[in-house]
Design goal:
single chain; mainly alpha; extended
């Protein structure tokens, strides 16, 4: 299920926050897991957990993904995500 949702988000550009995305990537409707999934998705317990996670996200000042936060001594540090490989740049520049 997790892989299906990740594939929907990263490869099919589907919003994983929408119920239709989750349902379209759920197990087959005839499968007993689908019935459990459908019940869980609309349960108040799941909604409370979601709201807790959202509050945690806001408290950590996470505004985009991927993101990296370090919590040390009750202080949150945002670590910039850099997709450049500085080690390779250093190695290449040394060999020139």
């Amino acid at each position: 299920m997790i892989r299906a949702i990740q594939s929907a988000y990263y490869q099919k550009v589907m919003n994983p926050l929408l119920a239709e995305t989750l349902y379209s990537n759920a197990p087959a409707k005839s499968d007993w897991k689908y019935k459990h999934f459908s019940a869980d998705l609309t349960s108040s317990v799941i909604e409370q957990e979601l709201q807790h996670e959202i509050q945690l996200e806001w408290g950590l000042e996470v505004y985009s993904y991927p993101s990296l936060q370090l919590v040390h001594n009750d202080t949150v540090f945002s670590i910039a995500v850099n997709y450049q490989c500085s080690i390779r740049s250093t190695i290449i520049s040394r060999n020139v």
